[in-house]
Amino acid sequence: xxxxxxxxxxxxxxxxxxxxxxxxxxxxxxxxxxxxxxxxxxxxxxxxxxxxxxxxxxxxxxxxxxxxxxxxxxxxxxxxxxxxxxxxxxxxxxxxxxxxxxxxxxxxx
Length: 109
Description:
The chain is built from five helices and no strands.
């Protein structure tokens, strides 16, 4: 039935995260955006859009890390594999160029 997902409760009471079908908390992202003072005004769709972007990037990086794990014969994702996956993709390497992935060995030039 449409509109009845998850656990019981009132059929009309769903969180914004559930309504947006996001894995990141929309309320949490909204609080971070407001406390960060990134703009004077904040639309109600801004944290939903940010959640979609975060979910998409996470799926891309973890998907690529999974391919790296399969190619190297490993069964688990490690920080090194996530780092290699982010650095081997042209678009992702530009995005992650100024970031450091914890517990990963420094990239060899």
